[in-house]
Amino acid sequence: MTERTARVDQLLQEEISRIVAREVQDPRIGFATVTRVETSPDLRHAKVWVSIIGQPDERRTTFRALARAMPFVRHELGTLRLRRIPELHLELDDSLERGTRVLQILDDLEAGREPAPATPGETLPSPGPARAENADLEQAGGAAVPAPRRTHRPAAHRGSGRGARRS
């Protein structure tokens, strides 16, 4: 991917997200997020990856409604200063679903449980039982303490944030 197509991909993602959120007035469209856009090198076609949260029926309905709205979205993209507005092809991004499943498996393994089987179509974790330390604390009359967040940052990125000291 060239630098130009990367910039066009980013611009299209932002504009498509804006149009879907503010200008598409279809009540069938639920909670959908444009996660990325990949344009072909000749800029004639673009894959628009969307992540949809909801039950399987709601997700299918939202996906169909978005697919029907793509010609309108493409027309609205005509205000951009591009030589050619690409044909938009909608793709379902299930990375959120897969990531949630991985986190669920890791939590089960950390707690010493056998990982639960996958629930088809589940996009967000279902509320589970309270962790043992929180259950003991609640029984003693205290408030539940949230588990510490796991943050994994590659060594190359540590200390490169806004407040990092420069030497």
Give a concise summary.
It contains 4 helices and 3 strands.
Could you outline the blueprint of secondary structure elements for this entry?
Elements: H1 3-22, E1 31-39, E2 45-53, H2 56-76, E3 87-92, H3 95-110, H4 132-139
Parallel strand pairs: 2-3
Antiparallel strand pairs: 1-2
* CATH class annotation of the domain at 3-93: Alpha Beta
> Structural class of the helix and strand makeup?
alpha+beta
Strand content: 5-15%
* Main β sheet profile: 3 strands, mixed
What is the terminal separation in angstroms? 34 Å
CATH architecture label of the domain at 3-93: 2-Layer Sandwich
Please give the count of helices: 4
How many beta-strand segments?
A: 3
- CATH homologous superfamily assignment of the domain at 3-93: K homology (KH) domain
Q: Note the run of SSEs as H and E.
A: HEEHEHH
Q: What is the rounded Rg?
A: 21 Å
Identify low-pLDDT runs: 125-140, 142-158
Helix content: 25-40%
CATH fold descriptor of the domain at 3-93:
GMP Synthetase, Chain A, domain 3
The coarse silhouette is globular
Taking strands numbered 1, 2, ... along the chain, how are they ordered across the largest sheet? 1-2-3
The overall pLDDT, averaged over residues, is 78
